[in-house]
Design goal:
Helices cover 27% and strands 26% of the residues. By secondary structure, it is α/β, with parallel strands linked by helices. The chain is globular.
């Protein structure tokens, strides 16, 4: 299985005061840090290697995860450094620890999908990148993807239109050279990389039937805790 880069370097200001002394990935959820749930999920899906791209209070993540063995994984932690790199910049910095192809997801996302199927679609379609999408219909966040007949027509996180009924699910697959060619400089966002690939006709798509969960908001934190307690099923709108 492909390795995973987890982006967990943000300041998490929206989750204050919970994140005044800890990074968002270590917010307690049902008696243990969210990151423990996320890493066990990845292990259960066949992932065996994870690179954690950290920034704010990243040493706490490093100390908690260790070598990853307690989660059935091999983990490495990579710090942004003194300057904020942005999500794409953090991935570029992590390339020496990843393979030619790899998954990317966010440190506040819990994505109970079929990772093997996503990887298979990526290789089958032969593009430099793949975005997973979910038919959201505005339920869980603002829909930002126009998806038609298996392909992404439009992706825009800032300017929604009625035709956008899907959302970026939060799991991507990329070839390393997508990031190796990024210029050095100010922080770079992963959304910009997705849009560049889409404009070049080099972005594949995979529609995921399971809804996503997240801890980037208090309501998302509560829903994720309920799901992990068995309060709802991944395919339902709960």
């Amino acid at each position: 299985m492909l390795p995973v880069a987890i982006l967990c370097g943000g300041l998490a200001t929206r989750m204050r005061p919970l994140t005044e002394t800890i990074p968002k990935a270590l917010i307690e959820l049902n008696g243990e840090p969210f990151l423990a749930h996320q890493l066990r999920l990845l292990s259960s899906r066949g992932i065996d290697r994870v690179v954690l791209c950290v920034g704010y209070r990243g040493e706490m993540i490093r100390d908690y995860v260790g070598d990853g063995a307690k989660f059935g994984l091999r983990t490495q932690v990579l710090f942004d450094g003194p300057a904020l790199l942005g999500t794409a910049g953090a991935i570029r910095r992590a390339l020496p620890l990843l393979d030619e192809n790899f998954f990317v997801l966010y440190g506040d996302s819990y994505l109970p999908c079929d990772y093997s199927a996503v990887a298979h679609a990526f290789f089958e379609r032969g593009k430099c990148g793949l975005m997973t999408v979910f038919r959201n219909e505005g339920h869980f966040d603002a829909s930002n993807v126009e998806f038609h007949e298996g392909r992404i027509v439009r992706y825009d996180k800032k300017n929604a239109i009625p035709a956008m009924r899907h959302i970026d699910y939060g799991l991507g697959v990329f070839r390393a050279d997508v990031f190796a060619g990024l210029p050095n400089g100010p922080s770079c966002d992963l959304a910009t990389v997705y849009q560049s690939l889409l404009s070049a006709g080099d972005l594949a798509a995979f529609e995921v039937p399971e809804r996503f969960y997240e801890i980037g908001s208090l309501s998302g934190l509560a829903e994720t805790a309920e799901y992990l307690r068995g309060g709802c099923q991944p395919r339902t709108l709960c």
